[in-house]
Amino acid sequence: MRDQLRVLKHGLIASWTMYSAYQTWRLWTFTWLSRLLIQACFYALIGRMLGSQQQVDYLLIGNVVAVMAIDATVVILISVGERQSGTLALMVAAPSTHLTVYLGKGLVNLGSGVAASTTAFLVLPPLFGVRLPWPEAALVPLMILVVGVSCYCYGTCVASFVLGFPSARWLALNVSYLVLMTFCGVNVPTSFWPDWLRAITSVLPMTHGLAAIRAFIAEAPASTVLGQLALEVCVGAGWLAVAAMSFTRMVRRGRRDGSIEFGG
Amino acid sequence: MSVRVQDLTRTFRKGKGWRPKGDQVTALDGLTLHVPEHEVHGLLGPNGAGKTTLCKILSTILLPTSGTAEVLGHDVVSGAAEIRRHVGIVFGGERGLYGKLTARQTLRYWAALHLLPDARAKERTDALLTRLGLADKADDLVETFSRGMKQRVHLARGLIGDPKLILFDEPTTGMDPVAARDFRELITELRDEGRTILITTHDMDEAEEVCDRVTLIDNGRVLATETPRGLAEMSGLHRWVEAETTLDVTGIPGVVGTETRNGLLRVKTTDDRAARAVLDFLLDNGVRSVHAVPPRLEDVYLDLIGRRGMEV
Amino acid sequence: MRLFLSGARTQFWLVRRHPDELLTLCTIPFTVVMLLSIVMHAARPDLIANAFLAPTLIGLWGFSTGLAAEVLVGERWTSTLELGMAAPGSLHPVYLGRISAVMLLGVVPLGETWLLGKLLFGVAPTVHHPWVFWAAMAASVFAMAGTSLLLAVTMLLSKNSNNYLNFIGFPIYLLSGVMVPVQYLPEFLQPLSHVIFLSWSADLMRDSLAAAPVAGAGWRLLAIVGLGVAALVGGRVLLALSLRRARELGTVTYA
């Protein structure tokens, strides 16, 4: 366990170094953060066109949380990139497990997403006249983090499958987060969808966590909020377990059929 | 014994997809190889001979189809975890490195993956950076390095876990002559530290210079395992005699052929005795610049593996 | 013209080989479902036209900027730009040809949106003024080509082009009122909308879907085309300048 934590630590340092080689604070703020804020505004403004503050509230909160999904699922691109850099053989041949590295590869981006959503949550509601129950609302960023982690787990799971089809990584990334943004109660309640689709959304991340955040803001009983959050955690854990199995299986299969490429 | 490979066979199916259905290809075909401790052992053979497949199996990232392979006394299938602690891999070329990390960060990262505690990782990183002449550039990004320096980062990375066995896959690919010479010195040092080294290479001069023994592989089978010199000796290859002369020697028994290049006569003879007869004849006739040439590893390679060796 | 056509042909080949570049076509359905679900859930059939136009125009924009910028920025990565500069033919028509090829594909989101709306939600807006609608679409595609060239050259000069390209989408969608008409924006932002051709396109196309007669269609079409021409000229001048600079300094990127 301590060994794995150390791997995670150095993996994080490495990811952070690589991330900051392309991103600076200014670049992040003026291109990425502002893009996500404007995206949330785009949807909140639809609420304004629909003519009810209730719609504005619903769309704004939904999209403030949802914009984090892009960052959370970027792990799909990153793990494919990791594999293409030719390190998989070295990792498998190292005494530590490659799982920690692969599963932790996108955590820096998850941080970026959670930071963006949190900023959106602090900045945008006043602009659109959305009332929040302060000071309790200060707990919402924590819930955003829970949703983020859950989305991240889902991302690693998709990543584990996309590793075999690296050319599909961009498509996989876009479809993965758009599914969450479209169906998981971001713009319309999940009850809007047919039953079969609603059943699917209940095992997707975001659905329960977002429901918890909405319930919390509406000052619903704590049991409802905690119940939904617990479901979100379970969903995330489920996806992570599948991801871990799938990564392990990929390596097992790679050892069998020789698809783990030796560099050179 | 560091490496003990017995009747190792590995087959692949051609084709794409989850379960390829194409023709079966044999990469290793009942290969047997023993490498004792503290030996520098070269694996020679054309592309596709099975060298990399063997390295993959020994580094536990590929399973054998049949036969057994033991590394440091552990089976590659059942004892993979133990093997991974003591085996280092060094690739040639630039793959497997992160361009956006510094040399130091690269080593610290891999130290963690090799389960080194932080204090020890730091110590070993510093030591390796100094040893490989990277100390001045330790905090520069790897992507700014020359090819030779990247290769040294690769080496340092492979040594971070203090391996007992090191697998080098085409290590001098793209190295300039100076870097290649340094590399050969390093190999000798590593052996003197008590490590076992397995090198796959196309470079015959390199193999001849650094390897204690070499194994020639072709079509997944071992053609021969010997010291570079011994391989040449026992290969039964022709001995050459070179002399600056225009005399005709074709009548001497055992002379297979002659050729003249830039005034230098090269006589191909069947064996040592014939070579001696030619030498005596030339010396008796007052020719002064005369010598016999033993076959080189390259000749042996070309003789055993044939023209295909040239295509690599 | 020959260079223009060969550029266009090359682009079609490239797109066929790299299906990844058709990504926008795969993301459009999600935009369609998102926007239509919002208006359907709010029981606002009067806004269905908006929900149809938005994915169409977002698709056109996303598709064109993504691919067009890729044409030039991709060239830079693969260093074919240098090869192109060394080739005897003039570069502008070739690039414009490649970008225009992309634009033609940019009409595909329109069909996609209508089809999905019909299939998934069983709705489709009536086009009351088809001539105006198609004229506006054609003008938009033209203006898009010019704008793409301008954007692509700007991207070429920037070191973080991907970041900017990623950034620029939503501000444009917001400012040009593809979904929510410009009058819902804060007043100080509204003048900005007038210099984005897409805002004229969105307005005119929305009006062409409505039953009421379209006022000043000619002038408004002219505005779209005019902004397109301005971008085209701007893009061309900038490309010429940056290629000349590249020859002088030996670098294309401004960084």
From TrEMBL, chain A:
Ranges that cross the membrane: 27-46, 58-80, 110-130, 142-165, 171-189, 229-247
Positions of the ABC-2 type transporter transmembrane domain: 20-215
KW Transmembrane helix (keyword) present: yes
Primary site of residence: membrane
Molecular functions per Gene Ontology: ABC-type transporter activity
GO CC terms: membrane
Pfam family name, one: ABC2_membrane
Membrane topology note: Multi-pass membrane protein
Keywords of this entry: Membrane, Transmembrane, Transmembrane helix
Location within or outside the cell: Membrane
Protein name per the record: ABC-2 type transport system permease protein
Species of the source: Saccharothrix carnea
TrEMBL record, chain B:
SMART domains: AAA
Cellular localization per UniProt: Cell membrane
Domain ABC transporter intervals: 3-244
Membrane topology: Peripheral membrane protein
GO CC field: plasma membrane
GO terms under biological process: response to antibiotic
One Pfam family it belongs to: ABC_tran
First-listed, main subcellular location of the protein, grouped into a coarse class: membrane
Superkingdom of this protein's organism: Bacteria
Molecular-function annotations in GO: ATP binding; ATP hydrolysis activity
Database matches in CDD domains: ABC_DR_subfamily_A (cd03230)
Keywords tagged on the record: Antibiotic resistance, ATP-binding, Nucleotide-binding, Transport
Entry keyword S-adenosyl-L-methionine: no
UniProt record similarity statement: Belongs to the ABC transporter superfamily.
Protein name (database record): ABC-2 type transport system ATP-binding protein
From TrEMBL, chain C:
Short name of one Pfam family: ABC2_membrane
Chief localisation class: membrane
Limits of the ABC-2 type transporter transmembrane domain: 52-208
Annotated compartments: Membrane
InterPro entries listed in its UniProt record: ABC-2_transporter (IPR052902), ABC2_TM (IPR013525)
Topology with respect to the bilayer: Multi-pass membrane protein
Keyword Ribosomal protein: no
The entry's keywords: Membrane, Transmembrane, Transmembrane helix
Any one of the GO CC terms: membrane
Gene Ontology molecular function, alphabetical: ABC-type transporter activity
Transmembrane regions: 21-40, 52-73, 94-111, 131-157, 164-184, 217-239
Protein name as it appears in the record: ABC-2 type transport system permease protein
Source species of the chain: Saccharothrix carnea
